[in-house]
Amino acid sequence: MIKILDNFPDDVLAMECIGKVTADDYRDGLIPEVTARLKKHKSLRALCLIGEGFKGYAPGAAWSDFTFGVSHWNQFSRMPDEGALSNIRRAGALPGQALIGGIWRQSSNT
């Protein structure tokens, strides 16, 4: 599941990945959210929190992320990474880096 997080500026798309991320999460949640925000802003900054309960991406979700990310590659600017560097490096190997400018892996150690 991809949960859109509140209390961020409108041009910051903050989300948390919990459990298994599916293509439906992109189709029904993330893509409409990004599309609506891009109507109001020339570009977005994105932050993805990888929750402790994250189980990975279903194959369809990885493909949805790749295709959407490639089609919008120039509409996302980088956002500073948060958290421990070792966790960021591990999280960077996840699908989603095409779409997500900054990735923070939530850990009980941070």
Model description:
The chain has 110 residues and is of the alpha/beta class. The chain has one domain: Transcription Regulator spoIIAA (2-Layer Sandwich). The chain contains 3 helices and 7 strands; from the N terminus they run βββαββαβαβ. The protein has helices at residues 23-40, 59-71, 85-91, and strands spanning 2-4, 12-17, 20-21, 44-50, 56-57, 76-77, 102-105. Strands 1, 2, 4, 6 and 7 form a 5-stranded mixed β-sheet that branches. Strand 1 and strand 2 form a beta hairpin. Helix 1 runs parallel beside helix 2.
Tally of separate helices: 3
Mean pLDDT: 74
CATH architecture name = 2-Layer Sandwich
CATH class: Alpha Beta
End-to-end separation: 23 Å
How many structural domains are formed by the residues? 1
Helix proportion: 25-40%
**Which class best fits the helix and strand makeup?**
alpha/beta
Any descriptors?
single chain, 110 residues, alpha/beta, Transcription Regulator spoIIAA, two-stranded parallel sheet, 3 helices, 35% helix, 24% strand, disordered C terminus, STAS_dom_sf
Would you summarize the structure shown here?
It holds the Pfam family SpoIIAA-like. 35% of the residues lie in helices and 24% in strands.
What is the topology?
Layout: E1 2-4, E2 12-17, E3 20-21, H1 23-40, E4 44-50, E5 56-57, H2 59-71, E6 76-77, H3 85-91, E7 102-105
Parallel strand pairs: 2-4, 3-5, 4-6, 4-7
Antiparallel strand pairs: 1-2
Helix pairs in contact: 1-2
